[in-house]
Amino acid sequence: MEDYQISKNIFIETPLIESEPLSKLVKRPVFLKLENLQPSGSFKLRGLSRLCQEAVEKGYKKLISSSGGNAGLAVKYIANKLNLSATIIVPEVTSQNIVDALAGDGIDVIRHGSVWNIADEKAQELAKTLGIFYVTPFDHPTI
Questions:
Q1: Are strands 133-135 and 62-66 parallel, antiparallel or unpaired?
Q2: What is the overall mean pLDDT for the chain?
Q3: Higher pLDDT, 140 or 103
Q4: In this structure, are residues 82 and 48 in contact, taking their beta carbons and an 8 Å threshold?
Q5: How far apart are the first and last CA of the chain?
Q6: For 44-135, CATH number?
Q7: Is the dihedral of CA 44, 101, 134, 124 positive or negative?
Q8: Per the database record, which ranges form the Tryptophan synthase beta chain-like PALP domain (predicted)?
Q9: Where in the chain are the domains?
């Protein structure tokens, strides 16, 4: 429970509401979890916040991740909350609006590769060579 209390300071408890139109459509209650109300705008903040806290517990001062948007915005928010710096590797096709939203406040953004997989390979490579904590956008037991 202690771990949850730490994470709770980063993400918020979002409401669960019933959607009348969807409930009527499928003839049973449909509930929506409003994760879009998280400070970073998506559910990614929940799992990634705990993973990044594990990085801090291990002594890391810098994070690196790959993203096309939501995960990067979560890492930026978390890094700022934990007083860490971070680098986000994005594919070259990432819109300038997303790059602008990710950059600043101790966050460096690097465009690399034509697709996310290539950007992610670069993030993992830099993490190993520079000794930076790699934050996978998904596919980790903590997340």
A1: parallel
A2: 90
A3: 103
A4: no
A5: 16
A6: 3.40.50.1100
A7: positive
A8: 13-142
A9: 2-37, 44-135
